[in-house]
Amino acid sequence: MTDATPDPHGTTDEEIRRLRWQCRRGMLELDHLLMPFLDQGYRDLDPRRRAEFVTLLAQQDQDLSDWFMSRRVHEDPRLHELIRHIVAVVAAQHP
C-alpha cells in the first residue's frame, strides 16, 4: 500500500506513521499497548472510534496509564469502552 492508497476505511500509510509517532510515549507500558493496537486493531475501527483513539493519544501519559491499568475509569463511557477494547485486542494477540 502506498501513501496515496487508503485502506477500506480511509487510512493511509502516512496517517499510520503519524499515529505511530503519537503512540510512542514516555512510559514503556503504554508503548506496549498503543503500538501493538495500532498495528493489530486500529484499521478495524470505524471513523468515530478512530477519532476517539486520536483523542486518547492527546491525553497525558499518567492519565492514560491510570485508565489502561484500571486505577481509574475514564469519565466518558465511549472512551472507557475504547480503552477496554484496546486492552482486549492486545491481550488476545499476546496472551
TrEMBL record:
Keywords noted in UniProt: Chaperone, Cytoplasm
Primary localization: cytoplasm
GO cellular component, one term: cytoplasm
Subcellular location: Cytoplasm
PANTHER family in UniProt: FAD ASSEMBLY FACTOR SDHE (PTHR39585:SF1)
InterPro entries, per the entry: SDH, SDH_sf, SdhE_FAD_assembly_factor
Protein name: FAD assembly factor SdhE
GO biological process: succinate metabolic process
Similarity remark: Belongs to the SdhE FAD assembly factor family.
Pfam families to which the protein is assigned, alphabetical: Sdh5
